Amino acid sequence: MQLVQTVISLLLCSAATATPVASSLRADYGLTRRDEPTGLVSRESLGYQGPGVYTLTYHATNLRADLYLGGSAPGTPINQWGSSGPYYNAHQYWQIADVGQGQVIIINNGTGTLFSAASSTLSGQAANCTGQAYPPWKSEARWIVETQGNYVTFKSVAYPNNVMDVLNPDQPFGLNTPVQAAPRSGTKDQQWVLQLHV
Q: 131 in helix, strand or coil?
């Protein structure tokens, strides 16, 4: 019943901005917008700790998943970018919500748009990830969290052979390079450090 209500709500506001979508998603999953998380739970508490607000840091470069300029328009790129340090930057904070069946959605804390694999992704090919105003049941917006010690890998539900990765992370500085859903390699290039914030 809850899923039906969610779908109806999202369809009614599909022509609007991402804001009502964000409100609906947060209400359905018991979330509230965290205007400014106060800090880390613990620097030792890395990895996935269950639903909550996280920063996602790419293991290979120590740069964060960042919604470009905090854009709420569907299709806004998600890139890697340097940490904002002690300053809160909503572009880099993500709410992870459990949607059942071992799957999660990842909601940008500033816009409410969903961290999504491009709908044009084909099996065995990589495609950039973007922020989208998708309904929560859309498989492109769903991920499976695979834990490896303090690191996690995000497997795409829509494209099970693909995981969250970064395009050419070793280019100079690595800044503003796209986050992708790419074929699994099993290396640290596809691992992420999650830090839970409160």
A: strand
